[in-house]
């Protein structure tokens, strides 16, 4: 029995690693329950240095080609990075975003709409579970940063509420 569980666990971990790569995720964590005192905790992650190294040559080439925009580029980057915005609502998990309760239904929220704390902003499906993401505070939805059906990672900015 122990051998069979080991083989099943290896296949399970390989499937998680494939899911990580296929969905361009950086980390995935799962707990598998076998019984009262028997479980398997798995965290699969991959390094991000490879992704960070790729844009570096592009960033170096752009300032060399156009010195004037270089001075404006840091200000644009700070203004354009929604993750740094104080009103950013970030994803609490890895999963797939759904902007409405079911296909064809109206979206939970739209840009410019007023929301109250606790209102459902969207749904993130993770491991076949639909997780309603509530508004952390009341305000106006300024920007929606994700598309319906998009895959998000933990900490990804979803929308901005001011």
UniProtKB/TrEMBL annotation:
A Pfam match: Biotin_lipoyl
A GO-annotated cellular component: acetyl-CoA carboxylase complex
Gene Ontology MF terms: acetyl-CoA carboxylase activity
Pathway noted in the entry: Lipid metabolism; fatty acid biosynthesis
Residue ranges annotated for the Lipoyl-binding domain, each copy included: 86-162
Record key words, sorted: Biotin, Fatty acid biosynthesis, Fatty acid metabolism, Lipid biosynthesis, Lipid metabolism
Listed CDD domains: biotinyl_domain
Region annotated Disordered, chain positions: 61-91
An annotated GO BP: fatty acid biosynthetic process
InterPro entries according to UniProt: AcCoA_biotinCC, Biotin_BS, Biotin_Carboxyl_Carrier/Decarb, Biotin_lipoyl, Single_hybrid_motif, TAT_signal
Biased composition (Low complexity): 61-76
NCBIfam families referenced in this protein's UniProt entry, alphabetically: BCCP
Physiological role: This protein is a component of the acetyl coenzyme A carboxylase complex; first, biotin carboxylase catalyzes the carboxylation of the carrier protein and then the transcarboxylase transfers the carboxyl group to form malonyl-CoA.
Name of this chain's protein: Biotin carboxyl carrier protein of acetyl-CoA carboxylase
């Amino acid at each position: 029995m122990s051998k069979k569980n080991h083989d099943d666990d290896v296949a399970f971990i390989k499937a998680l690693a494939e899911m990580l790569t296929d969905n361009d995720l950086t980390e995935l964590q799962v707990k598998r329950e076998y019984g009262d005192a028997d479980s398997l905790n798995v965290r699969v992650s991959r390094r991000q240095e490879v992704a960070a190294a790729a844009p570096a040559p592009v960033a170096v080439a752009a300032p060399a080609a156009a010195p004037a925009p270089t001075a404006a580029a840091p200000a644009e980057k700070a203004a354009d990075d929604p993750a740094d915005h104080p009103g950013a609502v970030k994803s609490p998990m890895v999963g797939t975003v759904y902007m409405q309760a079911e296909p064809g239904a109206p979206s939970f929220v739209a840009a410019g709409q007023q929301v109250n704390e606790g209102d459902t902003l969207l749904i993130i499906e993770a491991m076949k579970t639909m997780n309603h993401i509530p508004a952390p505070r009341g305000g106006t939805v300024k920007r929606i940063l994700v598309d319906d059906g998009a895959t998000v990672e933990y900490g990804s900015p979803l929308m901005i509420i001011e």
